[in-house]
TrEMBL record:
Keywords: Autocatalytic cleavage, Hydrolase, Protease. It holds the Pfam family Asparaginase_2. InterPro entries: ASRGL1_meta (IPR033844), Ntn_hydrolases_N (IPR029055), Peptidase_T2 (IPR000246). The active site is at residue 198. Its EC number is 3.4.19.5, 3.5.1.1. The keyword Manganese does not apply. It comes from the Eukaryota. It is an enzyme of class 3 (hydrolase). One of its GO terms (cellular component) is photoreceptor inner segment. Belongs to the Ntn-hydrolase family. Heterodimer of an alpha and beta chain produced by autocleavage. This heterodimer may then dimerize in turn, giving rise to a heterotetramer. This is Isoaspartyl peptidase/L-asparaginase. It catalyses: L-asparagine + H2O = L-aspartate + NH4(+); Cleavage of a beta-linked Asp residue from the N-terminus of a polypeptide.
Amino acid sequence: MADIPCSSQTGHSDHRSYISSRSSQFITDFIQPVIVVHGGGAGSISKERSERVRLGVTKAALLGYNILKDGRSALDAVEEAVVSLEDDPEFNAGNGSVLNEDGQIEMDASIMEGKSLCTGAVSAVKSIANPIKLARLVMEKTNHCFLTDRGAACFAKSMGIPTVPGEKMMTERNIKRLKKEKAEKTNFLDDVDNNTGTVGAVALDKNGNLAYATSTGGIINKMVGRVGDSPCVGSGGYADNEIGAVSTTGHGESILRVNLARLVIFHLEQGKNPQEAADAALCYMKSRVKGLGGVIVIDRTGEWAARWTSVSMPWASAKQDKLHFGIVPGMVHITDIGKGKNPPFCI
Ligand SMILES: COC(=O)C[C@H](N)C(=O)O
């Protein structure tokens, strides 16, 4: 395994061989639901922001975990977790999305469920609070996988999704960041710091179904109409019940060039565990196209990993009533969220 500056947390499965040797009913009874969420590959995060980011990712993970514990689907869990992150102005998705070169918000999102390989995606959508909900509607209510811009807006209207004035979704922080970016014009490849906050989730439910969801405002000062990796299945994420689920973050153009999510899935298929598969794919992206980013992964047995090559990547996971959370290499906080235990906040 190549030595790369990846950082991570990994949850090892203790029942891989057990699962493959039992009946499917038994498997259903035995599967421990798992969710992992991320708040985007990023540079250094100030102490003050760290706390808000911690609250955001742990809240999203717990929301999704409670859905899984109630016996609902991985698809519901990843959608709800991502909605919660889209609603949080701390993250670059939905409310809080970064601005393009025209000072507007254009958002991308995609979702996929691993039983049927059905997927839905939207790109360049404006004035919608939760692009991930629209992506799910594309998946469930149309014969297509991907709608963009005006077509996506018309479809949203036909589904009764209310529009939100663009200004309402713009934060002071993002208005200032665009001004700064226009003045300094940094190169994303060298500066993932400025492009924080894409959000994503992967989950495994009690029925063995896997799903992923990814949502983003893209990269700051992007060209009008620029579409990144996040809505592109195979780049921004992938889910296949027979293999695993992945959501990605980082430099979109690099992720697109290597099909990062599908590359992780490929390595899982070849027998690597989630940590090894994530590292191999991130390492390839770094060496081949000099791209930085991060991934969250769950394999079909529920083993999981959060790995990144950017300076930081806020992430949280929940499995077996333990909530894990981290932002930077080596940082892992574990909280007991079993019955009678107080979660780290109220939801
Ligand atoms: C951390 O930033 C991102 O994840 C941006 C997103 N991947 C895009 O390029 O649209």
